[in-house]
Amino acid sequence: MSDELGTFNDPPQPDEPPQDAVPLDITGVTALLQNGEITEQHGLIRNSSNYTFLITITAGEESTLGVYKPRRGERPLWDFPDGTLANRERASFLTSEALGWRAVPPTVLRDGPHGIGSIQYFIEHDPNENYFTFGERVQAQLRRIVVFDCITNNADRKGGHLLLGTGDHVWCIDNGLTFNQVNKMRTVVWDFQGDPIAPQVISDLRRLRDRLCDEGDSYRMELEELLDASEILSFQQRIERMLKSGRYPRPGSGPNYPWPPV
User: Fold this and answer.
1) What is the CA radius of gyration of the chain?
2) Is 162 helix (H, G, I), strand (E, B) or coil?
3) Could you tell me if 250 and 199 are in contact, meaning their C-beta atoms sit under 8 angstroms apart?
4) What are the pLDDT digits (tens) for 195-216?
5) At 253, is the pLDDT very low, low, confident or very high (cuts 50, 70, 90)?
6) Residues 6+ apart with CB under 8 A from 11
7) What is the pLDDT of residues 150-187, one digit of tens each?
8) Per the omega criterion (within 30 degrees of 0), is the bond before 260 cis?
9) What are the beta bridge partners of residue 64?
C-alpha cells in the first residue's frame, strides 16, 4: 500500500429465546488483539472497498488471525468524515457488548504496520453461507441484528456481512458505515418490518439508553472518544424512537437496500 493514501393487525408476539451461548472468550480475544504483537502479514483481503489486511497477532503461546483496516487505507466518502471508519467499527463492537448481544466480533483500535486502524477477530466460517442461505434456524439472532443496525444506522448491511460461526452464531462484520447523523439505514434484512419487538430486546435497549444518559459510564465515555457529540445525540434519538414505536422499521423513501446485496 502506498503511503498516500397505515393500520394493520399485530402479528403474534415473537418468543425471545435465552441469549445465545457465544463459543468465544470475548475478553481474552479482545486483550490479545489489543496487546499482542503483529507477527505475520498475510496480504490484502480481496473484494474489499478499503485496504483490508489479514494478519496474525501473537502473545506468548497464544495467537489469532485478525482483520486489519488502517485509517489511511479508507476510501474517502462524501457522506462520512474522512478517517473515521475504524472508529465506527470499534464503536459498533462496544455497542454490541453494551447490549449484551455479542453480535460483533472483538474489535480494537490500535497501531499497526500501516498506522492506526481497527483490528477485528477473524471469524472462521463457511464462505458459502450468508444471510440468504441461513433459513429459519437463526431468526431470533437476526431480529436482534435488525434492531442493532437500526439504532447504529448501518448504511451497508449486505448479506455477506453476516457470517455463521461456530454453534450457528451469527456475527456482524464490516460495521464502518454506522453512526451517521443522517438516516442512512440500508440493509437486506427487512423480514420483520412492522412486527413488534420482543420484550427482552426492548429491555436491553432501555438499559443501553440509560448507559448513554450517564456521562460517567465507561461505555459512554469511550463513545465520546470515537464519535462526534452530534452523532451520539442522533444515536440516542434513534434508540428513543425505537423504544416509542416498539416495532421493527419499514423501508422509507430513498435507497433502503445496499448494492451489491451480498
Assistant:
1) 18
2) strand
3) no
4) 999 999 999 999 999 999 999 9
5) confident
6) 194, 195, 196
7) 999 999 999 999 999 999 999 999 999 999 999 999 99
8) yes
9) 57
Residue 64 to residues 60, 80, 175, 217, 253, Cα–Cα distance (Å): 12, 31, 21, 30, 43
* Alpha-carbon span 250 to 185, nearest angstrom: 11
Residue length of the chain: 262
Return the C-alpha cell found at 25.
472468550
pTM of the model: 0.90
Our CA dihedral for 19, 189, 137, 175, rounded to 10 degrees, sits at -50
The dihedral region occupied by 243, where left means phi > 0, alpha psi between -120 and 50, and beta the remainder, is alpha
Query: What pLDDT is recorded for position 252?
Result: 82
Other CB atoms within 10 A of residue 175 CB: 29
The cell 434513534 sits on which residue?
A: 238
Sheet strand arrangement including 107-110 = 37-44, 53-59, 62-70, 117-121, 107-110
